[in-house]
Each structure stands twice: as structure tokens, then as C-alpha cells.
């Protein structure tokens, strides 16, 4: 199992959605984690709603700080495009997906970001 860490600033939306898709599609290949550098302390309600639409319960997740994740080497550390740089997280590969922050978008646009994240996670899983 490859350890993958998804990071965005608040760990409330994009990184949570990425972690959820990794759980859905990467069960036998990756062990996903998510975290943030400036924690919001909650999961974005739109993220919860958008994932509920496809049958995933994001309320099982919690918003986590980078200091709360296992201090081990990850195969990948993926930032979502929020400017967070995580050089202190040990990983074989660091990548930034450049995903726009959807938290202020209307739900139809939010779903497009969810679909973008889903495609990126599927692509990552196909690589490992």
C-alpha cells in the first residue's frame, strides 16, 4: 500500500474530497490521508453535500492539521493548489494539482471541481 497525503490550507474541502475518492477507488493500492496547515476545524458543508450526492459520507472525516498525521514517509504529497508547500513532509514525490478553491462557488460549479478532483485521484491511482 502506498501512503498518499492530500493537503490544502483548511483541510475542509478539496483535500477531504480527494481523500474520500482515494478511499473509494484506491482500496487495494493506496492508504490516503489529508491534512491542512491552517485548520478550519470542520468539513465544508458543500463538500459534505456534494459527496453525499454520490453516496459517500464525508461526515466520518475530521479536519486535521499537518501535525496530526503520521510522521512517516509518504509515496506522494499532493497539494491542491492553495499555495501550501510541504517540504517538511517526507515524500518520494511532491505534486501540486492546481485545483481552484470551490467553497464560495454555487453547487453546480462546486460539482465540477468535485469531478476534477475525482479524475485526478483516479489518474493517481492508475499510476501507483
Summarize the structure in words:
Helix content is 32%, strand content 19%. With 128 residues, the chain is α/β, with parallel strands linked by helices. It has a single domain, classed as Response regulator (Rossmann fold, 3-Layer(aba) Sandwich). α1 (14-25) links the parallel β1 and β2. The protein is globular and about 35 Å long.
CATH class call:
Alpha Beta
Biggest sheet: strands, sense, closure? 4 strands, parallel
Determine the fraction of residues in helical runs and give it as a percent range: 25-40%
**Beta-strand fraction estimate:** 15-25%
In terms of structural class, how would the helical and strand content be classed? alpha/beta
Q: What's the rounded overall pLDDT mean?
A: 93
Instruction: Please tell me what the overall shape is.
Output: globular
Considering the chains and any ligands shown, give keywords for the structure.
4-stranded parallel beta sheet; 3 helices; 128 residues; 19% strand; alpha/beta; Rossmann fold; 32% helix; single chain
Fold topology:
Layout: E1 2-7, H1 14-25, E2 30-35, H2 45-52, E3 74-79, E4 91-96, H3 107-127
Parallel strand pairs: 1-2, 1-3, 3-4
Helix pairs in contact: 1-3, 2-3
Amino acid at each position: 500500500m502506498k501512503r498518499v497525503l492530500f493537503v490544502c490550507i483548511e483541510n475542509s474541502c478539496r483535500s477531504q474530497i480527494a481523500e474520500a475518492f482515494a478511499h473509494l477507488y484506491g482500496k487495494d493500492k493506496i492508504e490516503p490521508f489529508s491534512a491542512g496547515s491552517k485548520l478550519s476545524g470542520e468539513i465544508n458543508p458543500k463538500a459534505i453535500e456534494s459527496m453525499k450526492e454520490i453516496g459517500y459520507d464525508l461526515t466520518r472525516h475530521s479536519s486535521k492539521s499537518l501535525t496530526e498525521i503520521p510522521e512517516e514517509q509518504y509515496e506522494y504529497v499532493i497539494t491542491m493548489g492553495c499555495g501550501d508547500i510541504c517540504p517538511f513532509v517526507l515524500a518520494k514525490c511532491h505534486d501540486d494539482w492546481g485545483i481552484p478553491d470551490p467553497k464560495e462557488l454555487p453547487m453546480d460549479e462546486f460539482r465540477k471541481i468535485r469531478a476534477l478532483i475525482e479524475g485526478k485521484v483516479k489518474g493517481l491511482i492508475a499510476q501507483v
